[in-house]
Fold this protein.
Amino acid sequence: MVVKKKVEKVECNDRLCPKHGDKKLKLRGRIFEGEILKKLPGRVTIQFERMVKVPKYERYEKRKTKLHARLPDCMKNGVNVGDLIQISETRPISKMIHFVVISIIKSSKMGEKLKWRQ
Ligand SMILES: [Zn+2]
């Protein structure tokens, strides 16, 4: 008998999960870090600031970028609005989504608790 090896520590029925799922999403392209603005079923919107040079004034200005990223099933409980997360580019999943959440850098809940203690 052949026993198939399955690593199932976290239940994840998401087919488009970069870690689990039978159709693993291949990560390629650029990686960004940003704060979550919106959390919707299966996806999040993140925002981050970037610097753009203004040649006329020889200075830099801040510009904001919003990106939509897919949120895999196994991460949906660990992510909240205000968290700092890392997203990676992947193939286009829908019209707007071609990024996927890969890790949580800083949880806003932890920050709130720390602030509250002070
Ligand atoms: Zn998963």
